[in-house]
Amino acid sequence: MERSSSSLTNMIVDQPExxxxxxxxxxxxxxxxxxxxxxxxxxxxxxxxxxxxxxNADYADNDETRRMTKRVKVMWTDRELLAxxxxxRQHGKQWTTIKKNYGEKGQIxxxxxxxxxxxxxxxxxxxxxxxxxxAGVFGIMDGQ
Length: 144
Prior knowledge:
globular; alpha+beta; 2 domains; 35% helix; Myb-like domain-containing protein
């Protein structure tokens, strides 16, 4: 079915304007004034889960300003990935056991939950498959 350009223009003009409910980046601020993610090799990772505060006054109840927070992605270090790989060699898919052995206070995976370990293993397996790299211990994630 063919339509003329004038009928398409009329369709576009007749549609109501869309509302932009997203805040501009100038309205956003970091709660700690830090970069969006932390990727320092060899540094302690004691600032996990930084949150970005977004002023959301447009949706406030009773003229009261609400603040929303959004998690900021914290990149995995090479040391964390190696610890996960070693944990998987020893314990397979027992994520809570890996967390107990490598994630206690002062250990390399202390800022990662068991669910994050599982997610990273799954993503690392798919990344290695996509890039043609030997899956290694992450091959146990095949078929889950």
